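FAQ

Q: What does a record look like?
A: Structure on top, sequence underneath. For example:
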């Protein structure tokens, strides 16, 4: 049986959080406010909308105005650096017979970046913002991928860097791999934890061996 890996984009496949944190700081500066990029990074690790609400309340700003400023700048970011070991991780998993899927809140630029890096052919399918599914932790997009491509939750793993990634997978019945090197989600219950993507191929080999081992 194949393993089906459902990947998050931001902070999992691509190292976009520093970029987003600076973008939020720049949007605040446009409104005459200052923020520390390190703090913005930590808040965005919750969610972008959480970070926007926090700063809007702190600086007595309309959240809608700050949100518009952030996304106006955010759309100008069109090139994203890969996480260390990402390309090798995906290719090793593919050679093992795993199938890759993308589930991200980001829009079409996520697929464009995969194509620019020559990785789009490794992905069976992708769900982005334009597809209109509810945001994580809702499981709808994962359930859609399972139904469309004919695999079960028992053969799937949701891979992400935030609790909402893991929760969306759990709500769909899948196991999860949480990549949390900075310990933002120590309290999150999850099947597997890794510090970097380089650990995942070995984990997949272990899981595959367990699946193939004869049962007593």
């Amino acid at each position: 049986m194949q393993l089906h890996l459902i990947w998050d984009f931001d902070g999992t496949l691509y190292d976009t959080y520093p970029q987003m944190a600076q973008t939020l700081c720049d949007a605040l500066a446009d409104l005459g406010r200052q923020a520390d990029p390190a703090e913005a990074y930590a808040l965005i690790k919750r969610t972008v909308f959480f970070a926007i609400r926090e700063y809007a309340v702190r600086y007595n700003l309309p959240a809608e105005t700050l949100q518009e400023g952030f996304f106006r700048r955010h759309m100008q970011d069109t090139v994203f650096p890969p996480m260390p070991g990402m390309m090798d991780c995906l290719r090793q998993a593919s050679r093992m017979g795993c199938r890759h899927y993308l589930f991200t809140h980001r829009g079409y630029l996520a697929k464009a970046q995969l194509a620019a890096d020559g990785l789009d052919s490794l992905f069976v399918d992708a769900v982005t913002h334009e597809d209109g599914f509810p945001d994580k932790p809702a499981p709808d997009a994962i359930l859609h991928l399972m139904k469309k491509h004919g695999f079960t939750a028992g053969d799937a793993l949701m891979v992400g860097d935030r609790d909402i990634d893991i929760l969306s997978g759990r709500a769909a019945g899948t196991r999860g791999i949480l990549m949390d090197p900075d310990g933002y989600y120590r309290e999150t219950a999850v099947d597997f934890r890794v510090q970097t993507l380089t650990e995942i191929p070995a984990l997949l080999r272990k899981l595959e061996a367990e699946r193939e081992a004869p049962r007593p």
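Q: Is there anything notable about this one?
A: DSSP finds nine helices and six strands in the chain.
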